[in-house]
Design brief:
The protein has a seven-stranded parallel beta sheet with strand order 3-2-1-4-5-6-7, sandwiched between helices. A five-stranded parallel beta sheet has the order 10-9-8-11-12, sandwiched between helices. The protein is built from 17 helices and twelve strands. The chain is globular. Helices cover 47% and strands 12% of the residues. The protein has helices at 11-26, 40-45, 57-61, 64-70, 75-103, 117-127, 156-172, 176-186, 193-201, 244-251, 269-283, 311-314, 327-335, 349-358, 373-385, 387-402, 405-416, and strands spanning 2-6, 30-36, 50-53, 109-113, 131-135, 207-209, 226-228, 257-259, 287-290, 303-306, 320-323, 340-342. It has two domains: 2-231 and 403-416, Glycogen Phosphorylase B (Rossmann fold, 3-Layer(aba) Sandwich); 244-402, Rossmann fold.
Length: 418
């Protein structure tokens, strides 16, 4: 088959699609991946044909707006988002829709990130190419749980579906204008925004969810279009080797603690890096700090800073993982069998932080404003010294490593496209 994949967002959004593209190619399919320009080099390292989406999410995360938002969401930052960021994202999305429309003319299937459903569904209608949506969090509406709110004391059957509506409509809101423009330009009829949102909310299109049922439930009130496959881990690039500094540091002592917040904007990254160093020293531990898009960094005798490193290589060599709670990082830490502390920033990250604590494979999550040297040091001691916690994390790792999420997804795709 000739399959086009379309992804948008930060590394946690793009990397699973790259993993699926690699797995599909290994099964003999022709694949290409549309993704933002930040990931061209990473995609190229795996030899996957790349379609450039004309936007940089790294530039956005490092912008003045993101730095202001990292200090707290206010009416002023929301207004700046709508005035400064949304117009650029709309332009990029419209250009992407035309780009992918051309790319799928000879394709057998389009697999799109679920939150791109306004674009993907319009391309599907224009070209007649079958469409599958995919996402790493349980965002199909359910009365049984929600990824964006903790269990309420009452009214779950009403409040949970409402939370899904607010989440999906909020995320998709900036996409409806370019969708309408594209549809007008290619001769498609108008379509209601709510109808498009329901394609994902109610799984009216096939939806592959690439998370593990061991970490989060699969709702029994989802329809047959939904398939929870398990996570889609990306192996290290074929020619990747660890930096000499990292290899030497790992060889010098006991396994360190990993700390990294991925693509999240961190307010005062230098101060945060110093706090992490001080907490590690207070706890008597060594650490590996991943700079991430925020550019954190600190070097001393017990802490080094690194750039990108494949989590599936790095995490098994750590004693514990401190991270932002992205679905991909949460699964990588769990698959490595390491206890975790989640410091959530936004979106579904608090949900994964709750799940880590509820399952007993990590300590209760901490909001960024709660972090102090003493609190972080106490959490690190628990992560590295609580044997029962570490045993549960190791058991969870064995369960996740026994899953074959990519294999299940590939088999489902092959059956669906026949």
């Amino acid at each position: 088959m000739n399959i086009v994949l379309m992804a948008f967002g930060s590394r946690g959004d793009i990397q699973p699609f790259l993993a699926l593209a690699v797995a599909l190619r290994e099964r003999g399919h022709s694949v290409s991946l549309a993704a933002p320009g930040d990931f061209e080099a990473q995609i190229g390292a795996y030899g996957v044909p790349y379609l450039h989406i004309p936007i940089s999410n790294m530039d956005f995360m490092q912008s003045d707006f993101s730095q202001k938002a990292a200090r707290g969401i206010t009416p002023a930052t929301l207004l700046a988002l709508w005035r400064e960021v949304v117009p650029e994202m709309r332009r990029a999305l419209l250009a992407t829709m035309h780009l992918v429309t051309e790319a799928v003319r000879d394709a057998d299937l389009l697999i799109s990130h679920g939150f791109l459903v306004p674009a993907a569904y319009s391309i599907h209608q224009k070209t007649g190419i079958p469409l599958v949506l995919s996402i790493a969090a349980p965002v199909v509406s359910s009365q049984q749980f929600s990824p964006v709110m903790p269990p309420p004391p009452f009214g779950k059957r009403f409040l949970y579906p409402l939370s899904y509506q607010l989440l999906v409509r909020g995320v998709l809101s900036f996409m409806f204008q370019p969708m309408h423009t594209y549809r007008r330009e290619v001769g498609l009829p108008k379509i209601a925004a709510g109808q498009v949102a329901n394609l994902l909310l109610k799984a009216e299109l096939p939806v592959l969810m690439h998370y593990s049922k061991h970490l989060a439930p699969a709702a029994t009130d989802w329809n047959a279009n939904v398939r929870v496959t398990g996570a889609w881990p990306l192996p290290a690039p074929p020619n990747w080797t660890p930096p000499e500094k990292l290899s030497a540091f790992l060889a010098q002592g006991e396994p360190p603690v990993y700390v990294g917040f991925g693509s999240m904007p961190v307010h005062e990254p230098e101060r945060t890096s110093q706090m992490i160093s001080d907490a590690l020293r207070l706890a008597g531990l060594r650490g590996v700090l991943q700079a991430g898009w925020a550019g954190m960094g600190h070097e001393d005798d017990h802490l080094i800073t690194i750039g990108d490193a494949p989590h599936d290589w790095l995490f098994p060599r750590m004693a514990a993982i401190v991270h932002h709670g992205g679905a991909g990082t949460t699964h990588s830490a769990a698959r490595a069998g390491k206890p975790a502390l989640v410091v959530p920033f936004n979106a579904d990250q608090p949900f994964w932080g709750r799940r880590v604590a509820e399952l007993g494979v990590g300590v209760p999550q901490m909001k960024r404003k709660q972090l102090t040297v003493e609190r972080l040091a106490a959490a690190l001691r628990t992560l590295t010294q609580d044997n029962a916690l570490r045993e549960r994390a190791a058991e969870m790792g064995a369960r996740l490593r026994a899953e074959d999420g990519l294999g299940a997804a590939c088999e489902w795709v092959e059956r669906h496209a026949q």
